[in-house]
Write a structure and sequence with these properties.
386 residues, alpha/beta, Arc Repressor Mutant, subunit A, 3 domains, four-stranded mixed beta sheet, four-stranded parallel beta sheet, 14 helices
Length: 386
């Protein structure tokens, strides 16, 4: 059963420089290191409480995270941070850059702008970004708040793809109008080096990472709303209820502390990892199972992602490009990579679950993000703040 707990208070956005990802619990970090070593040396011999070969995927139990109610906590935090500034007739800074964690499928700032009926600056067509003289007319005039949801839509990582972003930043530098500027963390790290975005715009804000208490309450609310009444969520390794608290209201399991660390406190990454870990027993209707067992969903450890093929560098270059641009068509992806002919690796990454495809555009899957970032870090690629 999931206990009703009061929702956590909205957390105001913090300076990007103050961002700290949730730490790994000591036991979980040691266990992960030992598990990886044991996987290399031998097969797992410890018998779990319920074997994974008796479990089916339960992806249909939950809906898509893009459903607006799931964004409400983050919307509230945007409101809490920006409400006074948006009505200030003479703010200290007219511009509010907000660096968002990667793999943001919800287009969060566009949703926030729509909720408050703010003006949204339409991005250019991607083909126009490679013109020597961009045709996009930058009209930033008007009253009220202007929102630029995704700065990554205004450039391509190409020698001819930075003209429009330079023009936009120049126009923003002299703007005297409330303007919220969204940018994903990988694009922001690139733009700081490529066009000195951090020197032109004020210090950016970002969301406070979801730590264990916040993540547990948030997922509990979603699970309570979407799962059948009375559903229990139990670890297949030992049968423990992952939402159970002890007499001092402390978690009895480290599941959500580990999930917070693994997801780096990114809400939608944690949600997708959580979704992938939920299973149901195939033989739940057998006479061996009680009514309680039939209302149980099992939480399993996820498999480790492994890069396909022998050319890890090519795979990482593709993944880095998709993180910077959030999503790219096949032709656009070829243009921003140093070497052509990467379609084979692109298909391999898609098959391996690292990237997804929607309407002909490729993107990094949120559940794979921790493994992608770890791979880029190990290979010495420049990283983002998230």
């Amino acid at each position: 059963m999931i206990r009703n707990t009061p929702p956590p208070e909205p957390q105001p956005l913090i300076a990007l420089a103050d961002l700290e990802a949730p730490p790994w619990p000591e036991r979980a970090a040691l266990k992960m290191a030992m598990m990886r070593l044991r996987t290399l040396l031998t097969r797992r011999d410890k018998t779990p409480f319920i074997a994974e070969d008796r479990l089916d995927d339960s992806a249909d139990v939950f809906g898509d995270l893009a459903t607006p109610p799931f964004c409400d906590p983050l919307m509230d935090e945007l409101d809490d941070t920006l409400a006074d500034w948006a009505t200030d007739a003479a703010p200290r800074h007219w511009l509010k850059p907000i660096v968002l964690p990667p793999c943001n499928e919800q287009d969060l700032l566009r949703q926030w702008a729509r909720r408050h009926h703010h003006d949204v600056l339409a991005p250019p067509a991607r083909d126009a970004l490679l013109m020597d003289t961009p045709e996009q007319t930058l009209d930033l005039s008007g009253d009220g708040v202007l929102v630029i949801p995704r700065l990554e839509d205004w450039f391509l990582r190409h020698r001819c793809g930075l003209g429009l972003i330079r023009a936009l930043l120049e126009a923003l530098a002299g703007l005297e109008r409330h303007c919220v500027i969204g940018c994903n963390s990988w694009a922001w790290a690139f733009l700081c080096k490529a066009v000195d975005a951090h020197l032109i715009l004020p210090e950016p804000l970002t969301f406070k990472p979801f730590d264990e208490p916040r993540l547990r309450c948030w997922i509990a609310d979603i699970a309570r709303e979407q799962a059948v009444e009375g559903t229990r969520f139990r670890l297949n390794s030992n049968g423990e209820n992952i939402f159970a608290l002890d007499k001092k209201d402390r978690p009895r399991e480290e599941y959500f502390e580990t999930l917070a660390a693994r997801s780096r406190g990114i809400a939608w990454v944690a949600w997708h990892i959580w979704q992938r870990s939920i299973k149901k027993a195939r033989d739940a209707d057998d006479n061996d199972h009680s009514e309680d067992d039939r209302q149980t969903l099992w939480v399993v450890a996820l498999e480790e992602f492994s890069l396909p093929g022998s050319d890890g560098t090519q795979a990482l270059l593709i993944l880095q490009a998709l993180l910077i641009h959030e999503d790219l068509g096949a032709r656009e992806l070829e243009r921003v990579l140093p070497d052509p002919g990467t379609q084979g690796m692109r298909h391999a990454l898609h098959r391996a679950g690292f990237i997804g495809e929607r309407d002909g555009r490729y993107y990094c899957r949120p559940a794979a993000y921790p493994a992608i970032r770890e791979g880029l870090a190990t290979a010495g690629f420049p990283l983002d703040a998230w």
